[in-house]
Amino acid sequence: MRDDFNKNKRNIEVPETPEFEEKVIQIDRVTRVVKGGRRMRFRATVVVGNKNGRVGVGVEKGNEVMTAVQKAVASAKKNLIDINLEGTTISHEVSARKGGAYVFLKPASEGTGVIAGGAVRAVLESAGVRDILSKMIGSNSKINNAYATILALSSQKVKKAEEVK
Question: What is the pLDDT of residue 19?
């Protein structure tokens, strides 16, 4: 009797924790006018990150919302970048421009939190940044702001082993 109990206990599968956390920033309904009428599709903007210095953004379209989200997640995983974190913040001030969007990121002391909004907040939280100050100037486009944040994070200077001493 006891052996049967142990056999059943070994067969219990523990669900694995996913390597990356996915956040859907925006889902848009996109229509295209063709000869027969209008064709409707969905565009998904997704941020993927491991909360430990790796983050990516993907934008894809599909005939259904779930298809678009799955394609965007796959695209984001292909475009992952590694960022240089110093504790809970970034190493120095950075800024970047994408289209009409301008994003400025400034390191903050521990306990400040993520002072950012919209797409910038989603990208920073997925990257694992916990203390930062930011400002979005120009465009309100979530896609351009997400891409500008990725550009800013990837433009950080990487410290060499000699400088860390």
Answer: 85
Which token pair is 146? 């997400």
43, 69: one domain: yes
Instruction: Quote the number of domains for the chain.
Output: 2
Are residues 58 and 73 in contact, defined by beta-carbon separation less than 8 angstroms?
yes
Answer with the residue of higher pLDDT: 3 or 89. 89
* Alpha carbon distances (Å) from 61 to 33, 55, 148: 16, 20, 21
Residues 6+ apart with CB under 8 A from 129: 83, 85, 88, 89, 90, 114
pLDDT of residue 159: 63
Q: 3 lies in a domain? A: no
Helix then strand count (H, E) for the chain reads: 5, 10
Q: What's the whole-number mean pLDDT along residues 76-86?
A: 92
pLDDT digits (tens, 9 = 90+) for 52-64: 999 999 999 999 9
- Determine if residue 132 is left, alpha or beta; phi over 0 gives left, psi from -120 to 50 gives alpha, anything else beta: beta
Which of 58, 78, 98 terminates a domain? The answer is: 78
Q: Which two three-digit tokens encode residue 135?
A: 């400002």
What order do you get walking across the sheet with 94-98 strand by strand? Answer: 94-98, 101-107, 132-138, 114-115
